[in-house]
Amino acid sequence: MAHAVAGKPVYWVSVYRVGDVLVDSGCAWARPHLQKYLSENPVHTVLTTHEHEDHVGNHAVLRDMEVFAPRRAIEILDAGAPRLPLYRWLAWGSHGVAHGVKPLGEAVTANGRRFRVMHTPGHSADHVVFIDDDASAVFTGDAYMGKLRAVRAKEDVPLQMESVRRIAELDLAVLYPAHGPVLERPRAKLIETADHFDALREKALRLAQKGRSPRRIRQDLLGSEPWLTWYSLGAFSAENLVRSLLGTPS
Ligand SMILES: [Zn+2]
To answer: Distance, CA 73 to ligand 1 centroid (Å)?
Structure first.
């Protein structure tokens, strides 16, 4: 699903339907697309990877469904949408209120299909992925996002890479991410990504030991900040990534 401005998509997020199960609900701006799709392809169970508004954006309109989510997402959906910073509202929209969302256990079984829940913290503290062992597939939300250069201040990238390595160990046939293309036999790509960030971390730590500031390390290792930093007024940045790698989040 894309949020389009003047007919041009500015932001893509994928949701997945597996039989009568939906994984995540996308961002609120894409609500008409999702509602039309679900009216033609109904689901009865909804699985949620994490609390970010581009993953729970339409939970408020999912009626007569059994909805499961991590603890933080349940809190946020119970409380309703806060006043979002302008960039987040423009990009994703507000998610609204959804009561009655159930906490996740070890697995969710829906219509005979079993989805194993694996805790994959890092991108957010209680992020989970859903493993369909019968199909050798994993639905990863934002646990795997490739070689990103800008992250939010709260993201724990070293911890996220531990999660990425655990997903790699599953050695599954296919990975369905929320952003980016579906990956067939994702193991090698996952390990390569974790290796990339671990190497970056070692370089950042060496520079920090020499007394370089996070800003200077960012300049040396990653260059200038990407457009997303300016658009998000600094909420996403390469300097946040450096600070996360150093274990000194701002
Ligand atoms: Zn996210």
So the answer is: 11
Q: What's the whole-model pTM score? A: 0.92
Provide the CA 238 distance to its chain's centre, in angstroms.
18
Q: What is the pLDDT of residue 153?
A: 92
Contact 161, 196 (CB under 8 A): no
Ligand 1 mean position, distance from CA 142 (Å): 5
Domains observed in the chain: 2-143 (3.60.15.10)
Give the integer Cα–Cα distance in Å for 98 and 198: 38
User: Ligand 1: distance of its center to the CA of 143 in Å?
Assistant: 8
What is the full DSSP assignment across 208-236?
HHTT--HHHHHHHHH-SPPHHHHHTTTSE
Residues with CB under 5 A from ligand 1 (ion): 52, 142
In the reported structure, the alpha carbon of residue 21 is separated from the centroid of ligand 1 by a whole-number distance in angstroms of: 20
Rounded to the nearest integer, the mean pLDDT of the chain is 91
